[in-house]
Amino acid sequence: MSGKQQLGFIGVGRMGGAMAGRLLEAGYMVTVCDIDEIAVTRLVQRGARRAHSPAEVASAAEFVFACLPTPDVLRDSALSDDGVIAGSKVKVFIDLSTTGPVMANEVAAALALKGIIALDAPVSGGPTGAEQGTVAIMVAGPGSLADQLRPIFDCLGKMFWVGEEAGMGQAMKLVNNMLSAGAMAMTSEAMVMGAKAGLDADMMIAVINAGSGRNTATEDKFPRCVLTRRFDFGLSVGLQHKDIKLAVEFGEALGVPMIVGNAVKQLLSITKASQGFGVDLTRTVCTVEKWAGVEIKGKA
């Protein structure tokens, strides 16, 4: 696929903007659209073309990517009268968002009636991974098409083809996010318990990361965002709650007992209600700290 291939990108917030920027740096021509005009302008200044609707993006490019916050926003961007489905040029729609298998199937079925192939290709790795091009991309759809798109995916991170059926990429993402959110929730409780017992925060992290308790929260989120009290991982607790709600509902629909998942969802729900939808997900620990009457701080 040519380095001057025309691509479309809908949703250029922190994650989407970073990925669209990487495509521009790789030499692709990218038409972008977002309700945040400032985010769009940043990319236009780097060489992107501005579109004013998803339909306009889909009339400029055969391959249209989307990175959007919720299933409802994705449905509207893909299937509304001014959505991707109304575009004149689009042939393939690639959803990088976390929107769940149910929505992936709904969008794929509707677009197929217009001759548009939909891939669900959610990503994991956070804003840092999006900026550095190291996200994991979980692609579901025709294997031959995934291989055709591999050079583009390689600009963004590491592609994993998970299956032919629509929604399989979303299912894989929910599996991943359950573990990630669970690690953050359990590490919050464990670290607060240790702090209440008088243990040093830096020492606890060092011990955990040398032992069997090591996880993504102890390796990255706590040292970088919690012990420093910066709380700047870059993903909101509201969006994390959305992801886990999707995961719990999906698991329960499959007949899987989501006991721990429901507990994680509850902690995120309380954090969202008490601190706000937009606060950083690492502030989940603040909910536990408040109840325990102790604060975790590193020496720094």
Mean pLDDT: 96
Strand adjacency order, main sheet = 3-2-1-4-5-6
Globally, the shape reads globular
CATH superfamily of the largest domain: NAD(P)-binding Rossmann-like Domain
Number of domains: 2
Q: Runs with pLDDT <50, length 5+?
A: none
Write down the CATH class of the largest domain.
Alpha Beta
Total beta-strand segments? 9
- How much is the radius of gyration in Å? 20 Å
- What's the number of helices? 13
SS strand fraction:
5-15%
Order of helices and strands: EHEHEHEHEHEEHEHEHHHHHH
Largest sheet: 6 strands, parallel
Q: Summarize the amount of helix as a percent range.
A: 40-55%
**Could you say what the CATH architecture of the largest domain is?**
3-Layer(aba) Sandwich
> What class would the helix/strand composition place it in?
alpha/beta
CATH topology of the largest domain: Rossmann fold
Give the N-terminus to C-terminus distance in angstroms.
Answer: 48 Å
Labels describing this entry:
Rossmann fold; globular; 2 domains; six-stranded parallel β-sheet; alpha/beta; 13% strand; N-(1-d-carboxylethyl)-l-norvaline Dehydrogenase, domain 2; 300 residues; 53% helix
